[in-house]
Give the backbone structure.
Amino acid sequence: MILKKKAYQTHELLLGAWRLVSWEARDTTGRVTYPLGVDARGQLSYDGSGRMSAQLMRQHQARFASQDWQQASEKEKAAAWGQLLWLFRNLYD
């Protein structure tokens, strides 16, 4: 019960939308990498019902040849989708 209360209090502090400042990953040796580049962009959002969403992307991506993403080639889609990260979940589930 104490852990749930502490998690709820932490969640209260995070309510709202947050701009990504940086995202780095460290392996077991401590080596730092930047999965979406050193200048990754993104936003994290937390709401009062426990829903969290995150959208992260590499800043400088090639544009599709067409304005309509549904007309993009398989090669264009594979390149673009590999440079994005989306996460949606309920923190209380």
The helical segments are 2-14, 74-81. The chain is about 25% helix and 30% strand. The CA atoms of residues 50 and 93 lie 9 Å apart.
